[in-house]
Fold each of these.
Amino acid sequence: MSETETPEEIRGAALGVVVENYQSGRFRQLTGATAQMRELCELLEERGYGTTVVEDPEWNDVNKPLGDWARKWRATGGHGPAVVLWSGHGVLDDRELRLIVRDTVDPEFDGEVHSANLLASTASLSGADQVLLLIDTCHAGAGVVPSLEKALDRLSQRNLPPGRWAWFGVIASCRPQEKAEAGGVLLDAFARVLREGPRTDEYRHEWSRRNGQVSGNTVIQAVLAEWPAEVGHRPLNAMTGRDRLMFANPLRAAATEPELVEHLVQAARGAAPDDEGWFFSGRRRVLGEITEWLEARRPGLFLVTGSAGSGKSAVLGRIATLSDPAHRADVLAHQPLTPRDPDPGEDSVDVALHLRGFTVQQLAEAIARRLSLPRPQTPAALIAEVEKGWPESRRRLVLVLDGLDEAAPDQAHPVVEQLLAPLSRLSCVLLGSRDRPFRPQQEPGESLDRALSRILGIRARAADLDDESDTERDIQEYCRRRLLARALPMADATTAAELVARRASPNSGGFLFARMATDSVIRRLSAAGAEGWDWAEAIPSSISAAFTEDLESGPVRERDGAVLPRAAEDLLTALAWSGGNGMPARGVWEAAASALSGDGIEYGPEDVDWLLNEYGRYVVEDSDGTQAVYRLYHREFVAHLRHASGHSDGAYHVARAVVDLLRGQTSDATVSENANPYLRASLAAHAVMAGERGTSMVRELTYAQEEVFRPDLAEVLGDVAVSLSHAGRREEALAPAQEAADLYRALALNNPAAYLPELAGSLNNLANVQSATGDGQAALTTIAEAVTIRRNLAKANPAAHLPDLAGSLNNLAACQSTTGDRPGALTTITEAVTIRRNLAQTNPAAYLPNLATSLNNLATCQSDTGDRPGALTTITEATDLYRTLAR
């Protein structure tokens, strides 16, 4: 499921039975019960449930409306979820709950009462796979066990097809021997949870604002947790089966709401989320340069680079935070800006994204979503939309993009070439990334800013935080502020801050080390006070040491009386091996952590909540467009946990868990659409990380369901080939590249619309590998096939496929020239120039650089065929274009 897709809406049925008035004087009137039931059913209607309310039924006619409701939903509901509610009086007779109706005279007479058994039967006969039963009466708990037994009996008779799961949950307002207070406490609590979500200071991952829906079990647990302490009776619940999503999450953020990535917010704050205060300090020179650059609103790219922990995310986060109105207000409430503090201004940033795990296409979709633009078919389509004008295009677009070095494997170059280069000619792009070698390189060890300048065709503006002269002073001030906020005496705070700042050299982790070292000092203060500390001994020696110390001395998970000493490390390590921009919970994160435990421990949702509450300072919550996903806060934690001795072969174990869970959620791969979206979307990434065994696991899936998983295997093989080729292992890349092309060819025979573009791309990659291994003739044959396919695709859909055709023609010309067909190369590159010239007329920002490249190649071909005057004219045009792009 893509970044822009949303989960399906809930469609369910609800039956509410309420008895407010009674003929017998034995039972007092329950004033307001009918109004309460109606309001609750209206609330359910707003959340996708069709509702039926049965008011004050009598014993001889209560069964008909209930049966009609069940039969109707069974016929029309498509097995959608059902909620059944009963509100009224209940009587306990020989440990059996008897539900009183309007004309009940003698509760001991079976013919004058209803029962929890019959209510459970009604719910089960509705055909719903997910059923929640609520009984709000005196002695309601006596109906829990019979209801569950009836449900189990019904479920045992149902043989659900693959991909469907049954769940039955029941919650009663009180225990069997208790009388419930008037007022419908259970229904009120249920309505409040549906309307507002849980009231708790602790994090509950199921209720993340990024999750669109929650399960019936999640709602039950919230009701139980928030039961009013002053109420003299306690609810009772039971359930069986596998719960699925059942209710809309009231905490879900509106899809159109601007979303500042939490990675940036935390970094800007310079402290863990639960550490009161905003402590960002310094970096005024770099921030001043950025704000001046933004104020000018001239298109271009500003790169903020530096070593790990140098504060790149903090700088970008400061800009994004001061732009977002809500976060800006929070910053100013804690620490007003001074005249010396650079300020980009409110609403100065249009898009703020962290690029971890993004492919170039996923990034294009994410940017389009935040700009309220149509989902682009290609990165070039996004550029065209931006060039035409986005909804707020009265001013220059500003994008803050952090973590280019954390993009999906081998995607940094395509991201820059296909998106950032053209966007930087239309908008202001503020980019954060480590200054590390960038493939493909022009020369060994080429720095990132030089590579960006080469690809963009202009000199990218850059700031290297490792070169900042005020770094030590800025770190010292940051640490001092945090320690003073924890009431450490000024002298001690100054001493500790000076020591941290001296140790936090660029090679030792800079600001990241400072943050963690300060965390360590604060933990020690909380445990033992500030008296008599040897600060040189108290401060950790490195990021790794601080991280290890925190995990070893921090909270330990206890569950059902047992201690789980490695819970924090297992759960965090699972995230270190996540794919995309993070891993969801909902069984996925739990399964990955369980696979890493090594001693058979199985982690569940409650363990995820524990980890996020106790160690949330190391975790960032984001969204994949349909659900909350989680990733580690910094790459240093990823590196540390991946290489920890306790988790050898972690990539394989996590990949194994992903594949096993995928098979389990899809009934052994027979109903693939029922799997959590992450499992399919990140399958290739996990397989590649796991190496040859990862590829073998995907082959296992193809053996189970070849038609379903052949595309996944083709994707994995293609990614493996690209990675091997970029690593210089071109001979090894040849076999997976060839197999990927063969698979896509077979897929395209049955579904050309879906797979011909993939086949052309895989052939293009195969030709590159063949050429790199010296097999020029094979490369020529392969790239010629790719050109033929893309030519046919471009005839049917020029906008989507002409750019790719031009690229393949460019490669074909190179192969023709290499194999001695210089006239053929001239003809081919001339066609590529013609296509790119036409494209550049309608979308110059995206295609002028490519046109200049093709003109350069055309000039070479003209010179090789003896047309030196033509070559001079062509290279002159190319040079003029490069000059234009460099302005």
Note: Confidence is low (pLDDT under 50) at residues 1-7, 255-265.
Amino acid sequence: MRARLTVLVALVVAVTLLLPASAWSVGKILDSQAGLVDFDVRTESLPPSAEQRSLVERLGAQAIWNQYGTPSSLVKHGGYLATGVEGGTAIAAAKAWLAANRGIFRLDSTAGLELFNDSPLVHSEGHAISFRQTFGELEATDGGLVTVGLAPGEGGWNVASASSTVTGDETLTGSLRLGPEQAWLAAAASIGEPHSLVDIDKVNAVKAGAAGWDALHVARLDDVQRVRAVAFPTVRAGVVPAYETIVLNTDVAEPVAYRIFVDGRTGEVLARQSLVDNAHDGPSPTFSFEGILPPVDGGCDVRKGPYTVTADAHVRAIDVFANADSPLQDIVLRLYFGTTLVASADTFNTPERIRYSPASGVPPGDYFVEVCEFDDTANTPPLEPRTYRGTVTLDTSAPPAPYLARWKVFPANPPLHTLPADPWNNPSTDTRALWCWRATAAAADCNRVVGNLAARAPWDHDVKGNFPTGTTVGNNAVTAESWTDPFLPSPNQFRPTSPTRDYSFPWTNSWNTNDCNPGTPYGSAFVAGESFDVSAAVTNLFAMHNRMHDWSYFLGFNEDNWNGQASNFGLTEAFRENDPVVGNAQAGAALPPPLVYAAARDNANMITLPDGQSSITNMYFWQPLAGSFYAPCVDGDYDMGVIGHEYAHMIENRMIGKGVRRSGHHAGAMGESHSDLLSIEQLNESGFVPTSDENRWATGTYATGNKLRGIRNYAGNFPPSGAFPEPSVYPQIDPLNFSDFGYDVTGPQVHADGEIWTATNFSIRRALAAKYDAAFPESDTALQSRCADGLLPPESCPGNRRWIQLVLDSFLLMPTAPSMIDARNAILAADTLRFGGANQSELWLAFAQRGFG
């Protein structure tokens, strides 16, 4: 018995452009979709030259070659392709290595390579640097990328790998002769959508959300059409000047959506890809088979089948599994398309697996499976028992988008008001960012990559069932609209859905532009799943709860320390899981007056329940209330300062309360302070604030309309003393110290008294930031972001990260009903445990300045 490995290489590229649909709106999940099969003229392959193979051999490397005759992957097992590569940055070093090894990639020069993306590897100093080929003003698409994996080493950078779809052709074959409109017409005609030039008007591409594209409005089509000039690499016909087009018609029973490449010289269609992802009622079809091997060496059982793939089944792969009943049996598994062998597998002993996934999809027809005993040189017959069994699965699942999952969100808040009072003039400019779970080839796809090890799986993934939920339900958070109850989940429990996992829903600033109008009669403006940007609101709240989960996880709010997750991945007893935070968006918004004004406006809350039970947080609409508080008409679901504050209540309650709730007035006051501090720190570390002219250290500037202090009497960054007060000038100082308990007109009150602890902690933050600023500058936004994402330990971060780490460490050291003195001692102890007492002097000075001895 021995091992041979049959390598099956397949690449399935999924491109999605369909907008996600709300569960209550007209966009429904389709059960099936009949359409044209994908098509590509590039069916040939170009072998590497002898010189290329020689260059690879000199590196001591191994290469897998792509259809362009360049390395699909290039590695040196057990070592580096190169060490000590010079370069001031990872990008420079990667470019230098490519220049030195350009012959392997059939390149005469690297001048045509432009930086496409720098992807730092999580929890590592490594980078994956990608470059894209350019040809004059045209960028390569559907090919033309090369990625170098490298990390810093002694005397330079160590290159570990390279992968590519680059072509050795470095000039265009001809020039564009068609205009973009003509190219789109050719693309549309190729799928049976005939139009003429008189049907086409150009529209503003920026407004159409299609930067870099020409946006077209075509008569009889409601959808915006798109087209752009590109360079299209081919195998033997050079690099073709072409147009990439998007042809959409979603106003029909069976939506039309194709990405089509058109030769810009002739109008010939070069490639076509369907953009419609289909949902199916059940799992992919699976068929069982069994048999018995002949009693001779190398014998094959009769072929099993046929397993029929139809043209409209959308099968992207065939998975075959076979397992012999004797564990030492050495079997060979083969898959046939008709009588043609298309894939085989033979590793060690049983079992064997095949995944057959051609790049253009599985061709329709009949497939057969054959199981044989390995024909060895010793003519050894098969072992008894000779029986085997297996399965064939026709994979009809939709391929994932390059970003895997994406959310369109306000990282901090929408644009702030431009007037200091009613009518406030809150702009309706959509400044949201695209947060993607995974980096993509197209920079425009994402503003921030949020994939991380704290979550382990994308935010919308059910880790127990191992499937994407397609909505605002995941392991860390469950979020829905809750219009009819101010505190608990209530109807309609609307959640937006997206079969493509692209949660980019419209935001129109509707509550503001409608001047807080609930409709006449009262409540008539609330249409389930549609009104007041509810899809965007639910999505935003869901993403922000996940952001707080991930940020705090790296600071210690994890499974062991009572965080909230549906699955704890086996790290705790089962009774401590099943508790993702429940977020109620626009809570109680449709309640009738006067109850709505008392219970469901101008506030937010968190109901922290013990570990193993989901805590519940509520976000409300804000509006002016006569004789009370005069807020702008805004939705609290977009104010991350407030959202983060409420989430942080679960953090401090559970960590200090050791899985339940901490208790006592001091603890309650510090709870309000800690919630402000954690929320503010997350925003500042991440570089999300300021968004305008607000004080970036204030909480709730969007919701309250107060850009200076937010929801508090004092902003945390106000110094303890300052200039002598002047008439009509607000004194931006915070003189509070430990002796000022009960200073507010209400007497002892947790929100007001908590500001004493906030001022104290800001003194600590300021002191540690100054102490470590020379080596770890607080102003280094890139460093701050890496620390916020948990990529670096606190000792490699600015002083503010060390401070917030001590704060969360102290939660675990405090008693469950701590006084502020207990909390002071816990922070001092945390510094001793973590940093060997390196910051005791700074800590004591800050405490003393605020009256803590």
Note: The domain at 405-661 is CATH 3.10.170.10 (Elastase; domain 1).
Amino acid sequence: MKVRLMSCTIVPEQLYVERDADRQLKSIIDEMERPGYVLVSRQMGKTNLLIHAKDNYENDREVYVYVDFSTVDDLTERDFFRNVIDTAIETHYEIFKEANSIISSLRQDSTLSNQRQYTREIRILLRYVDKLVFIFDEIDALTKTNYSDKVFSQIRSDYFQRVNFRELRKLTYILSGVIEPKDIIKNPNISPFNIGQKIYLNDFDRREFDSFIYKSELLLSESVKDRLFYWTKGNPRMTWDICVLLQDMQNLDVVKLDEAIGRYYFESFDKVPIDTIREMVSKDKVLREALIQLYYGKIDALDDSLKQKLYLAGIVNYQDRNIVIKNPIVEKSLSLDWLMKLQNDDVDYLEKVYDSIYIRHDYLEAIRLLERMLSLNTASKDELNKICLYLGESYYRTVKFSKALFYLQKINSSEVTKEVIQGNLLEGYVYVNQDDTKNALNCFDRNIKIGKETGMSDAYIDESKLGKAEAMIESKDKTLLAEANSLLVSFIAQNDLGSINIPLLPKAHYLLARVKEEDKQINSALEELDAAIMMATEEEKPFLLYQKLLLLKKDEDRNNVAKRILLSLDKKTDVQILENFDYTLKLDVYTLCLILAELILHFKEFKEVIPQYLKLLNESKEAAYNTICKTLLISNEKNAEEFARLILKLSENDKWNFGTDHIFTAYMAVFQKTRKIEDAIAFYKFMKQVNFSRKNFPSVDARFLCEMLVNVVYYYVFTIHDYITGKGVVKLFNDNFGQDTDNVVRCMALKKDYASYAISVFTKKPYIAFDEGGRFLLKWETFLNRVRDLDNSLIDDLKSIVKFVQDHQRKIFRAHQIMFVHKYGRNDLVIIRYIDSSITLSKKYKDIEDDLELGKCKILNMMDRSRLKI
């Protein structure tokens, strides 16, 4: 029976054409080591790819569960996780019939968090299968929920928890959407999704295109097939839709094909996927500007993220530096004339920037928009000041202080404008963050001077006075502290005159409390904090009460304030993620972590009520503890070690379910605070236990870990002479950090190589140790030639090591000289090779004698003098 093509959602199996993505998907599922995510624009066949895999690979022992996320915005967090489990059961009821009864019973009395309950239910399902593959389609719909981070955190955790629950090795995930998981995650510090493997679903190549035409049983001439491929470039949806049109056409030729495509796509532009692409471009000025740059051949102006955005919109294909519009149909639908008309009709560009910075906190997007505006060179003088201010703000909040200063200092200050005042304030805070008190004070003083000379009443000028006080307090300088005291007393006194910004008063009292604390006037500091608390908003009270708690000594007083803190948190349903740069008293994630750490560690009487406040950070108490630990570690808080040790202790309790990454963070926090060898060894043993791999911890501080590993290998080699364990430490270092180009890491690598050399000296034959010593000295020379901006103490430490190696190499050479050289005259020409190279050289013996003695090179043979041309 002849095949009949019809418009359909799911491609019939007999017409399905496999692509590289199918093979990559199968490989990921076979390996079961990490989640895959299919990254592709709409109407490219991703759902068919997923369903094809399910239909072809599923059996009674290997279960595939397809879940469509397009309606998740109607689900609560609890319903979402339950829906995933319920879908697995409902679609495979005969397999999971018994599991269903167990899960239904457990749900009735469960007090577990949603994520822990989900893990428990997954483990129950895994009892009945050899492989469970969840296929999550349309993951971009998670952007509409407030629990997207928890979904990705759970997926990530399911892989790391394999250390504790081996059955999770039978579970894997495949995700699919038109947006990367990292772009859905709202707080990557809490829920980094860095373990997935991308699957790119590309257009048909010519072989795949011909395979589809063959399967469709369409009788097309070679010229028509060539022309059809020219128009679609293998786009599956377009190829299918055009073939539906062609199957009933008589006497088809290239002219008729062109006419059919013109009528179908270009008369009203309402056919899939052109309608979707045009709608996206009409709403997104960044896409439009990128396309205009592409039309003008300015490919270098497009960064990788912008190329990715164009790709996911279904507009371009790109590889490395080559980027082209997908096909002539897309190109004609997005003509330059149409793009320019949209540009002229668009709303204010700077409004989008403002929204990106202050509403959505998407600073990278703001930077892209602003730098695009600068490249167009069309901004007016006033707009240029705003652009520089917004760029300064965006770079400041992405901790790129030098770039922030570059743009803030480009603001034209010939006239006093709002941008000038805001720029001075922001520049001052940049310098505060850099501990540059002198320049910070100059910036704040510029605004204070503007206020005096113009009589202007402006919140940013008032805030500059507090910024100045804060800079002086941070300096710890006694003279500046006294000046800060006078400034703050004067600022607060103006309240009676009604001439200052009232919302700033709590902060003024708080800063004055800090001055009093620095001066050891604790009672006065407490009085200022009480004044601040009395004037503060509900959002500010938790922070101020916490500051008071830290100053109190009596248990009764501390307990009373702790109760007030908990009361102030009772009405909270969520907490803002404010940057440290905001210099606000409002409760944010950072302050909440400090508060909860203090209460957990030092107020055991609140043990039963603390879990409800942990949910402000995460539904999972383990994830919440991890967030607290990371916050304490990053901010170098005094409670960091104690809290990390608490996590390590709790991880041994069956009632707690910490992930591998949680425990890793705790070990790291302990050693970072103590620098004790016993803590380094415990950390190393944990890394060995979980088969540490840097690819699973890509954001780890490599410098810190390498320092720790060097401490460990030195202990085993030089203190207890356990060379076998020492070799294991060296291998772990080499496997994970051996290719790192960071100068500090390379410095640590040389220290590690010294330990490796010592192992060879103590355990191997002299000539093997001699070779390793030579390689070490050559590495040192290379390092010294390339290193820049490294702490002199690190270099000096290495120099003493190098001196020891050189002395020992000479001892080996002299003790075993017959093994290395024959008798050569000083002017004899010899063929040599340095042991880190494959290149042979001819040198006079006297020129390489020292290198030979140090083991850096070897003599291959002496040259025949009679053959030399002199």
Note: The two ends are 88 Å apart (CA to CA).
